[in-house]
Design a protein that fits this description.
The protein is of the alpha+beta class. The chain contains five helices and five strands. Strands 1-2-3-4-5 form a five-stranded mixed sheet. Helix 5 links the parallel strand 4 (112-116) and strand 5. Helix 1 (2-19) runs antiparallel to helix 2 (24-42) and helix 2 (24-42) packs across helix 3 (68-75). The longest helix is centred in the N-terminal third of the chain and has 19 residues, at 24-42. It is globular and about 45 Å long. The two termini are 13 Å apart. The relative contact order is 0.18. It comes from Thinocorus orbignyianus.
Length: 156
């Protein structure tokens, strides 16, 4: 669970970093706070034997509201909801599941995999999607003002 949470928190932190205006120390603190918040929230909702069980519960979402878990971590470094709305995409979904972390920007965007690992005793996983195709789909399907983001892929 820690690896998947680290991948999700690092991705959201990179989105904030790309938007600019937040110092490296604050970003590191945000990532660590978000990891703690997610770990606490997911600890009784993590089922490696049935990875899809509880997936909706582990979905981090920004649409007309910022996910309360992101708000909580941001509050720990003094970022307001208004700042988050300016810095993050207006529509973002991050799924944090056992063995896979994926995201989608915009309601019609492609789902891109940030982290994927084989399930113990399972079949090998499919290769990760091309970062370029995810980047292009991201730009085409964006629901936020155009910003330049660097994509990150984490693998084990």
């Amino acid at each position: 669970m820690r690896t998947e949470i680290f991948a999700a928190a690092s991705f959201i932190t990179r989105l904030l970093r790309a938007a600019g205006g937040i110092g490296a120390e604050q970003l590191q603190c945000f990532r660590e706070c978000l990891q703690e918040v997610l770990h606490e929230y997911y600890k009784n909702h993590w089922f490696p034997q049935v990875p899809s069980k509880g997936s909706g519960y582990r979905c981090v979402r920004i649409d007309h509201q910022i996910d309360p878990l992101i708000v909580k971590a941001a509050g720990m470094i003094g970022l307001s909801n208004e700042s988050l709305f300016q810095l993050l995409p207006s529509e973002l979904t991050v799924w944090v599941d056992p063995f896979e972390v994926s995201y989608r920007i915009g309601e019609d965007g492609s789902i891109c995999v940030l982290y994927e690992s084989p399930q113990p005793g399972g079949k090998p996983t499919k290769p990760l999607e091309s970062r370029n195709s995810c980047t292009e789909e991201w730009r085409i399907g964006r629901a936020s003002p155009s910003k330049s983001y660097n994509m990150m892929t984490v693998s084990s």
